[in-house]
Amino acid sequence: MGEIHVMREGLLPPGPPKRRHLISITDLGKEDVERLLGTARSFSRSLEREVKKLPTLRGRTIVNVFYESSTRTSSSFELAAKRLSADTMSIKAAGSSVDKGESLKDTILTLAAYDPDVIVMRHPQIGAPQLAARYCEAHIVNAGDGKHQHPTQALLDLFTIQEELGKIDGLQVAIIGDVLHSRVARSNIQALTMMGARVSLVGPPSLIPRGIGAMGVEISTDIRSIASADVVYVLRMQRERMLEGANYVPSLREYAARWGVTPERLRPGQKVMHPGPMNRGVEIDPRVADAADALIEIQVRAGLVVRMAVLYDLLTHGPVAVRELEPEGVA
Amino acid sequence: MAALRLFSKVAPKEDLVVKGARVLDPAEGVDGVLDVRVDKGVIAEVGTVLQANGHRVVEAGGLLLAPAFVDTHVHLRVPGREDEETIESGTRAAAAGGFCAILAMPNTDPVVDSAAVLGALVEDAREQAEVPVGFLAAISKGQEGTELTEMAELADEGAAGFSDDGRPVSSPGLMRRALQYASVTGRRLALHCEEPSLSRGGHMHEGAVSAELGFGGYPSVAESLMVERDLALAAYEGQPLHLLHLSARESVAALRAALADGVLATGEVTPHHLCLTDEAVRSLDSNVKMNPPLRSDEDRSALIAGLIDGTITAIATDHAPHARHEKEVPFEAAPFGVTGLETAFPALYTHLVEPGLVPLETIVERMSSGPAHAYGLEAPRITVGAPANLVLLDTAASWKVVEQQFRSRSANSWLLAQTLHGQVRMTVAAGRVVHEA
What we know:
The structure holds two protein chains of two kinds. Chain A is of the alpha/beta class. Chain A folds into two domains: 9-150 and 302-324, Aspartate/ornithine carbamoyltransferase (Rossmann fold, 3-Layer(aba) Sandwich); 153-299, Rossmann fold. Helices cover 32% and strands 14% of the residues of chain A. Chain A has nine helices and nine strands. In chain A, helix 2 links the parallel strand 1 (61-66) and strand 2. Chain A is globular. The model of chain A is unreliable at 3-17 and 319-331 (pLDDT under 50). By secondary structure, chain B is an alpha/beta fold. Chain B has one domain: TIM Barrel (Alpha-Beta Barrel), CATH 3.20.20.140. Chain B has 14 helices and 18 strands. In chain B, strand 8, helix 3 (151-157) and strand 9 form a beta-alpha-beta unit. In chain B, helix 8 packs parallel to helix 10. The A-B interface holds A 5-11, 103-105, 123, 125-128, 130-131, 145-149, 183, 186, 209-215, 243, 246 and B 200-201, 206-217, 219, 280, 282-285, 288, 325, 328-333, 402, 416-418.
């Protein structure tokens, strides 16, 4: 995983160690992704055992800081850390000093005083994890920063596709809906194209950001263009991120009628993914969400093993086969 | 009509001879190795091997002596944010940057929209200002865009022009009235062109970089649409106006076309828009967040071309100091604006002159007489009989920009930790040496 990218040397944190962080998919090369997916696969097998806990990260401290609500991501990071025997601590903005107006910088400095090994952070603003990396020595894992990046989501999506379709290279993936407000879309476009998939974006013009073609994607406003896709990736309409009165779409009803993913708009065998939480009846028809070709629950399960792999990789820096490790209690 | 006035503390004028510099005043057609003698703050002789006459002698071989710079776009943050800047610190910063005169914007707290607020500033400037400073007053009361300020009284009290900088005059009707009424004051309107319904939620230029990073976009058309509106109104009323901090190529094109049609318009551009593009925002550094935002490479090229062909006649820094804790936050939470007074010439020399993009003569002219003419100020000139407004530059020097050396109270510079070429060795403002390094 890469170093954080800063323009000026003066911004680099003081002291010698250049910490490895996972802030953006662009921190990763193809080999990094392959290594992480391989590690996740090993963890996946280890979770089939009766005793699921591994001693790998015993004595390490992992702090989850969530400034935005989350079910999937926060629970899977916490469980991932516990499965690896790390000590974990979870802080939510509500009920913390953030409520009292404490700045991000001061919160990070406070947490840094406990010398955590990893800080997993979700924040509503772009670049919050980069800022955190300036003020502490921990490895930073971005669990979603505003509309920017959600790298572990993209990794778990790659893992899901790899496991369910047997490959990523050469596949066609259609990402549908509210791309404008979606960090999941941005991370997935970078991750999928890096691994050789072709990506197309489908949605109303107001929700497809101007200039995004430069990321190497095709753009269509016609829902029928999803017909050729191997995977149909449905994005959530992020009403909470939309500016009031911005009129991105006239109504959710009209959006659902034009761009909602319904059984009629899919062909048999097309796999459907969604990062959750779903707005059933808006971007996704309930019949699609509950169908056999929907991979949505598999994505959630993949989230656990992929996040275990990320924590493991950051703290051990290397492709150590997990099968060499013994479950806790045996070792 | 009251004459345009600048204010500074009273100090003795100096006698000095600057010897052996390359003297460059593009507006006066001067370029050669010459001596310049200043008697009691006035240029008394320009020639070769001048006698010292008991004056202080400044040996300036290998250096460049030019008309000092004029910055018509500075935020001194007073009244209201004395923690960020004051008249004293801001004019010291200006002196260090080679400026002999600056104009301060009225978007303070309270807004400079009454004779009382303006009068207090004038008084402070007479006690604190190292270099002469002029104050713009607001176009509309509270800069709220609904009611005109008492422009005639403000002009009598010393307003150097009128601006709602920081926000646009949204209503075309009020803009038209402002153009009509400002004509009785003999002062320029300086316009911040932004259509808010297009820029709302925007943190950077809308384009490939904002699409990838996820930032809300502030499209070029949000500026150029307003530029076109204001030029159309100026043409209709036959009144002059000045366009602040142009950033988009469409704006440059609109200004060029209006000038060809005889509209009395001037335009300015900042060093950061001339040197950077939206690619810089990939750093997520809040010190590259400004309004208008850094735009594409094509926009930057159009600004440079406009500067060279004379469509844009002024470089102005839009020096916008911000408290450290307000910038040490994620990009979207940070306020717009960067400092610029102390780095303007070195930044332009390093990023435009050395790479051969803009001739040195153009930079010097657009930093001195160009901005002065835009507001009807007396232009700094190197000619006998003119007040000594001089800057002595060492273009061979290189230095690293570090926070500690700023005279400004704020350090939100986009150039921190960069090594720049070109250093201001001495500034003479209104006949007085105000900076030496």
